UniProtKB/TrEMBL annotation:
The modification 4-aspartylphosphate is found at residue 60. Keywords: DNA-binding, Phosphoprotein. PROSITE patterns: RESPONSE_REGULATORY. This is Transcriptional regulatory protein RcsB. GO terms for molecular function: DNA binding. The keyword Phosphoprotein applies. One of its GO terms (biological process) is regulation of DNA-templated transcription. The keyword Phosphoprotein applies. The gene is rcsB_2.
Amino acid sequence: MVFKKILVVEDTDSINLGLMSKLNDLGFKTVISSQSCDGALIKIKRAIQDEEPFDLLISDLSFIAATTNPKINTGEELIAEVKRIQSTIKIIAFSVKNQQSVIKQLLEEIKVDGYVCKGLHGLKELHNAILAINKGQIYVCPIAKASLEQKHVFQLDDFEKQLLQLVANGYKQDDIAEYFKSKNISPNSRRSIEDRLSRLRDNFNATTTSQLIYLAQSLDLI
């Protein structure tokens, strides 16, 4: 399917403008925005009444109240209500939230079609989500996927934090080995560093070290 009418719900001006610009650049002609949940629901209902419903909703989850007594306070509430009145609409949650419980609720209980975390690659991942949903697939961005696959809250020890921080700062493995030796930090052989990075990639389900660093930074682990 090709989305003909998209509603963006985001209360931060700069992000709202960025989303609208990205969607227009991707060729979507009818893209409408709302900066409040109540306003978004009014637009959804009016479009249904006019028999010109939205076929994609992209919504943040956290909102600053624009009025004194909003009827809907969160993106989760909005998404659930929209699903209730228009079950066929496709929905992407676009949020800074990367907690496993939040993502699971939206995917398993509310049944959103995509979950994308805001950040450095947020708009790129949003594009990936739209492409996947167009093909009838559910899309979960790498950060959200890493969160879902953690059986327990993943923690890095001091050595791993320092190792990943050095990699993030551009150090090569030989440089890291020499640095650890100069600081009397063990293990400090190149082989041990390679092995630890390999294990961390497995733990994070990262295919490359660059993706590992991106996930660790996005999850505020380094």
